[in-house]
Write a structure and sequence with these properties.
10 helices; globular; binds threonylcarbamoyladenylate; binds magnesium ion
């Protein structure tokens, strides 16, 4: 159910949860300083409490109210990429409720690029917002997806809908900069700013990597073995087995289009109740394609729990 800005503000200040569109995907929001609102995010999503959330801010003063320090590099990256889909891991002040960070000494923080949401955060303070989907299901990138998971009456803030379709890129300084999650900002752009290569961290640093993610119910197959699949997900200029239903991710030469379609199509194949689906992941190893391939690979590891 779409709600107005003033309704959204009222609900959040009452300690309730609402869904908000960000430029990446929908978030399930609660005010950081209201612990019951944060607890409810975990129960609504059926999310493990060991998996901390991203905190969304509207200005640098809000960042300073949450973190112990900001390195020169971190400040430079904020200036370059915020508002936008870059999440930074920074040392948390003890005053940040432990439920917001799963008792970790750090927090994940970003400034989303959506005017309505920024205004809301400016007025109510920082909000925690993991993606607005049930844990284990494909990320919610449309109003229909949020309603599918939380019901038609669940409040969703009005305004522009996500345009990227994939989550933010997460990086942290340990003390070298490491990539914790491939995301909407291509790593090459961050490497260019840092003038250094970004290596993908071991799984320890980002709890979300332990959990099954992004998968449709159908078992997804990749590569040469098409087994006895019932449908194909691919690109519009390529030719596949014509006898099977085809789901079009867009043009192979347009990664932004593919990114925007990916989770929507995962949910669409679930609506058809397919059990086995083949997905074409033969894409270049660069830029946003790397994030798309990582999401496909995580979704293909088996059935969703
Ligand atoms: O684009 C996005 O990032 C979206 C929108 C709503 O902003 N949010 C999102 O949140 O993707 P979520 O909860 O689905 O993913 C948050 C990820 C998880 O993998 C979590 O483990 C990681 O961030 N994370 C959170 N706090 C962390 C910390 N202190 N250290 C390392 N990883 C952390
Ligand atoms: Mg998520």
């Amino acid at each position: 159910m779409i709600i107005s800005f003033s309704e959204a503000k009222k609900l959040l200040l009452e300690g309730k949860n609402i869904a908000v569109p960000t430029e990446t995907v929908y978030g399930l929001a609660g005010i950081v300083s209201i612990e019951s609102a944060l607890e409810r995010i975990y129960s609504l999503k059926n999310r493990s409490k060991k998996n901390p959330m991203i905190i969304h801010v509207a200005n640098l003063n809000q960042v300073k109210s949450l973190v112990k320090s900001i390195s020169d590099d971190a400040l430079m990256l904020m200036k370059k990429f915020w508002p936008g889909p870059l999440t930074l891991i920074l040392p948390a002040k003890e005053s940040v409720p432990s439920v917001a960070r799963s008792d970790m000494p750090t927090i994940a923080i970003r400034m989303p690029q959506n005017d309505q949401v920024l205004k809301l955060i400016e007025e109510v303070g920082p909000i925690a917002a993991p993606s607005a989907n049930l844990s284990g299901k494909p990320t919610a990138t449309t109003i229909e997806a949020v309603e599918e998971d939380f019901g038609k009456n669940f409040p969703i803030l009005e305004g522009s809908i996500p345009e990227v379709g994939l989550e933010s890129t997460i990086i942290g300084q340990f003390p070298e900069w490491k990539l914790l999650r491939f995301g909407a900002i291509p790593i090459e752009e961050i490497e260019f700013m840092l003038q250094n290569k970004l290596s993908f961290s071991s799984e320890i640093a980002c709890p979300g990597n332990f959990f099954k993610h992004y998968s449709p119910k159908a078992k997804l197959y990749r590569g040469k073995n098409t087994r006895d699949v019932q449908a194909i997900i691919g690109y519009n200029e390529r030719t596949y087995d014509q006898s099977l239903p085809f789901f079009d991710l867009g043009s192979e030469s347009n990664p932004r289009e593919i990114a925007k379609n990916l989770f929507r199509i995962f949910r669409l194949i679930d609506a058809h109740n397919f059990e086995k689906v083949w997905i074409d992941d033969e894409l270049p190893n660069q830029g946003l394609y790397l994030t798309i391939k990582e999401r496909i690979s995580r979704a293909s590891e088996g059935e969703s729990s």
